[in-house]
Amino acid sequence: MARTASYDRDKALDAAMTLFWVKGYHATSLKDLEQALSLRPGSIYAAFHSKEALFRETLDRYSARMEADLVALVEHAPSPLAALRGHLVGLSDLTPCDRPSTACMLVKSLLEAPRDGDLRTFISAHLDRIEDVIATAFRKARASGELPADADPDRLALRVQTYIFGLKIQAQRETDPEKMRHLCADLAEEIRLLSQPSLQ
What we know:
Blueprint: H1 9-23, H2 30-37, H3 41-48, H4 51-76, H5 80-90, H6 105-112, H7 118-143, H8 153-173, H9 177-192
């Protein structure tokens, strides 16, 4: 029986998440996982049961961190709309920093997943949760009077989520930091103007 007691599960999941984030699910081989996790095949299967199960767990991890970051941003910003503006402006950084990619792992995974299947549904559910965090921010903004009473938080959340994921994709192809800053600032400005009913 494969021995798994000597591995650090959190470290292994972070390594697997980085690998899947960069290469994608299908392009990641078992040999890649062996090298990244420093585990033998038997230990990988004993710990995570299958490649897909491991992939799903890394998506859970990625999504939970993204959701927590957004929630914390909304809680600590001067207002919900200021939080969302700040998030969009923050996406102008073209350097991955401690991330393996500026693109969103969830979006990359969704584009790769079969059109019909449990995996696509699983990824979409994570995207729905992120969208709900944004919608909650808009509901708070509406309740506080920062948005008009007739504003539609769900509709606005879908728009802003599209901005966020679009910017993360754009960051993969953009080479001019100034152009990226202007783009993020323009979209952030749209959020500032949402208090005007004509822009709903």
